[in-house]
Amino acid sequence: MSNILSLAKSYEKFFKIGAAVACKNIDSYTDILREHFNSVTPENEMKYISTEPEEGKFTFGDTDKIFDTARALGIKVRAHAPVWHNQTGGWMYKDGDKPASPELIYQRIDAHSKALCERYNNDVYAWDVVNEAVIDEVPEGASGDAAIYRDSEYFKLCGADFIAAAFRSMDKYSPNAQLFYNDYNECDPQKRGRIVSLIKRLKEQGCRVDGFGMQQHYFGTPDYDELKRSIEIYAGLGLRLHITELDVSIMATFGHNVFPPSAEDIERLKASRPEDIAAIEDIYLKLFEIYRSYSDVIDCVTTWGVADDYTWMDGFVPHDNAPAVKQYPLLFDIHHAPKACISKLIAAAK
Question: Are 103 and 19 part of one and the same domain?
């Protein structure tokens, strides 16, 4: 990697620069990964449905391809989200015709963690052990754990203790990697409080929790003050921080929160005006300025994707009335060329 042209090399004194990658197109990104990134995250390939679609039947082909590529490039891996309420086979929650007991679920999590770690430990420096276990909005009348945790199948069968079980298993089988809890809307004050409660509970239960993954998906205009406040609160728990799934929607340039979007917002979204697309880069510059200022606690900044030709945002509908349109949320364009803000980000790091 060139000192002048490489984003990752320029940011070595601050934090790693990562990207989420997919097996189906990682070959097309090899050059850009080699030049600009020093961390990769498998997008979906390490989740249960991809690695253990049936109990005890492991399918590692797609994951292996990502690890083989990362190894060839000399890049270490952030292993992402085996325990999540999505992309998990129904077998996890069943014992024949009956619901699975908590003990059986913990055994299955343990067996899965063991298999993943035995295969990939040498190349993994951090795990998103559990993903998105906190509820977005508290149901009316909810109290106790029901006012903190997502009402997932895991939670219905185990309560919140499945989270501790996952961390204990990963700690046992991957003692040299950092262990993270990962979530979105992490700067919303109400949800932030629930995330803090989850992490404090894990620590009280004696679990090793090294860090928190701040996803940083921006569909509305960032509240930069709330971002700084959130970084300080999470770091105050003694956690290392990773920005884990950063991308910036066109809607983030509209100057307000877009939930629900107005008719005017929807028309503007459909138009994908060049000035709105260009304004995404200004948001990146402001975000990275904040990340650099907290580089004493932030160890990695990962975008959720490599370039604009492939991004989950293209198919995401943030509201019933909002269309799914082509988005341009990443740092490299559809032709894999660096956007203008890359040179500015590199200059700011000097």
Answer: no
270: pLDDT confidence band, cut at 50, 70 and 90? Answer: confident
What DSSP letter does each residue of 149-187 carry, written as one string?
B---HHHHHHTTHHHHHHHHHHHHH-TTSEEEEEESSTT
- Please tell me the distance from the alpha carbon of residue 16 to that of residue 6, in angstroms, as a whole number: 12
Distance CA 271, CA 215 (A): 27
- Is 224 inside any structural domain? no
138/297 Cα distance (integer angstroms): 30
Question: Tell me: the pLDDT tens digits for 54-95?
Answer: 999 999 999 999 999 999 999 999 999 999 999 999 999 999
- Model confidence, pTM: 0.95
| Domain encompassing residue 291 | 1-37+241-350
Q: What is the CATH number of the domain that holds 137?
A: 3.20.20.80
Residues 15 and 152 placed together within one structural domain of the fold: no
Which candidate, 342, 271, 264, places its Cα nearest to that of 303?
Answer: 342
Cα distance between residue 179 and residue 165, in whole Å: 13
Q: Using alpha carbons only, how large is the chain's radius of gyration in Å?
A: 20
Q: Are 126 and 33 members of one domain?
A: no
Q: Are residues 280 and 205 in the same domain?
A: no
Active site residues: 132, 245
Residues 139-154 as b or e (16 or more Cβ within 10 Å = b): eeeeeeeeebbeebbb
Q: By C-alpha distance, which of 200, 182, 156, 213 is closest to 83? A: 182
